[in-house]
Each structure stands twice: as C-alpha cells, then as structure tokens.
Specification:
Blueprint: H1 4-24, H2 36-59, H3 62-88
Length: 89
C-alpha cells in the first residue's frame, strides 16, 4: 500500500500544478483560446484532485486540513462550474 506521505506529496504537486496551468495558460479555458481536449483534461485532473482531497481530509491533522481544502477549492469550483455550464445548455 502506498504511504500517506507519498499520497500527500502527489496531491500537493498536482494541486499546485493545476493552479499554475489554469492561471498562467489558456489550457482549460475553452472560451478564451483553449481546445476542447484541454478542457476535458483539466476537468479530469480537477476531479482527481477533488477526490483525493476528500480522502486526505480524514487522514491529516487539523492544521493541514486547511491547506488540503484551500488547494482543492479552485479545482472543485472548476468542476462545478463546468457541470452547471453543461446542464444549462
């Protein structure tokens, strides 16, 4: 079984990379120059980040829970906004 430390490290790397890609590139931004493939890839990564955050939330200490939630907020919002946009059409 994979250790909690390795899972936490992978989670933080993926969450920070997601934020950097979303904020510094047009990837995932279909309405401003991104492609549909980039949008789907970013949604997939956002779903994985959100699911891992829910799993990690039970396993980390009180102080680290704040960081887990903060790192998952933007990806979770990205997924919810995409679903609302999809259902609104």
């Amino acid at each position: 079984m994979v250790s909690n430390q390795l899972i936490k490290t992978a989670y933080y790397v993926a969450a920070i990379a997601f934020h950097l890609v979303l904020l510094l590139t047009n990837a995932g931004n279909y309405f401003h120059g991104g492609t549909p493939v980039e949008l789907v890839a970013m949604q997939g990564v956002a779903v994985v980040i959100s699911m891992v955050a829910m799993k990690l939330f039970r396993k980390v200490g009180t102080i680290e829970k704040v960081f887990v939630v903060l790192c998952a907020l933007i990806p979770l919002f990205f997924v919810i906004a995409s679903l609302v946009s999809l259902l609104g059409k």
